[in-house]
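Supplementary notes (optional reading)

For those who missed the lab, this is the record we used. Protein: Ribulose-phosphate 3-epimerase. Length: 221 residues.
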Amino acid sequence: KSLVLISPSMMCVDPLNFESALRRVEALGVDMLHIDIMDGHFVPNAPMGLGILEALGPKTDLPIDVHLMVQDNDFFVELLEPMRVDQISVHVESCTHLDRTLARIREIGAKAGVAINPATPLSAIAYVLERIDYVLVMTVNPGYAGQKMTPASIRKIADCRKMLDDAGYGEIPIQVDGNVSFENIPAMVRAGGVNLVAGTSSIFHRDASWSENVVKMKQTI
Ligand code: DX5
Ligand code: ZN
């Protein structure tokens, strides 16, 4: 198995055929399910609700990776507490008390991730490294599938890797989310991305079958 993890973004599948899509995704040999939870305020969209997440837990053995894109993170973290969730990332831009929120995520038994928008400086996460299990570097402005990678993305991933290493946190992995395409993957991985959120740019690309896309993805890694 490759050291780079593949996390399909489940907001990209047909919501009316979610369970059959889940079974097809499981058969692809992927590493975790990326679940985007949006509130229509922090980002101007809200494609998936907590109902689907709650229903998903008992129906799959794959790890569940929740990416919160919400204004009130603490409210959502408490709602996730009774659910089977393996890791939760919160955006630095909407967490007033980021340190406390991250500590709470670990307290409820999940790995804690900090997500950072394209324009936000890496210094925003410099003092929470003790609290996190991974960093989610956004390579598009969050909210929608099918966008183009923002221009500084590769530099940002590399700078994040360097910041973590220089601070003595070489073990903290970087997840990359947004326009993780066959074309962009090599540079993303070279810069330090080790957990790739796969959406319409790769696994769910319409030009080929999902399994052909996964094979192609693995070849580019
Ligand atoms: C939002 C999502 C999207 C998306 C990724 O956080 O995770 O970034 O589904 O898929 P692409 O960008 O390939 O459509
Ligand atoms: Zn996401």
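If you only remember one thing from this example: The CA atoms of residues 158 and 190 lie 8 Å apart.
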